[in-house]
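Hi again,

Forgot to attach this to my earlier email, sorry! This is the prediction with coenzyme A bound. I've pasted everything inline since the attachment limit keeps bouncing my files.
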Amino acid sequence: MEAIGVTQVRQGGMDDLPWIRSSWPDAADVLERHLVGQQAGGQVVLVARNGSQAVGCVVIRWTGIDTPVARASFPEAPEAAHLFVRRESRNGGVGTALMRSAEQLVVARGFHQLVLAVGLENPGAARLYERLGYLRSGIVELSEYDYTDASGIDRHAVEWNECRVKEALIG
Ligand SMILES: CC(C)(COP(=O)(O)OP(=O)(O)OC[C@H]1O[C@@H](n2cnc3c(N)ncnc32)[C@H](O)[C@@H]1OP(=O)(O)O)[C@@H](O)C(=O)NCCC(=O)NCCS
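Structure tokens for the complex follow:
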């Protein structure tokens, strides 16, 4: 898995939860949900670690993107979802390392495309994906998801996302 600076990325497991909970309590419940989903199959959770701290995560869904037009357009592609980096650790390459590791895993499993959805009101994330070679598809669809905000409050979001795709991944 990718290592940039002191950041290391590897697949998370339920036995990582005590460490995640102590080093990044704000994100622990969300990560636990992702890890429970991983146990059920169909997805892999990558966790970025910097020293003793959990600093980011991304989920790879082998079943692909779940909005209808994007799915019909890229039926064979896994999806990178829930990319999230701890606020104090941003702009240091953690998000890039997570996405590179996701790509390596996707290639290792025999896929050659990776798709993702990025909010129309999230230009920072769009820049990251642009730099990594994820092309705009022009497919914009409404997504709904649950998340926990920085105060630990569970929220429900509804947003317009554009699907982006990276073809011919090389690992
Ligand atoms: C979007 C997000 C995941 C990016 O994570 P990140 O760790 O900051 O990503 P990176 O550090 O790899 O890249 C971000 C910026 O830092 C810069 N950067 C990367 N490595 C760097 C380094 N070693 N030193 C200084 N700057 C660096 C990049 O050039 C990039 O610059 P840009 O703002 O011009 O694009 C993070 O901001 C986040 O968690 N946001 C909230 C959740 C979210 O929006 N997720 C995406 C959902 S689609």
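The mean pLDDT is 93. The two ends are 10 Å apart (CA to CA).

That should be everything now.

G.
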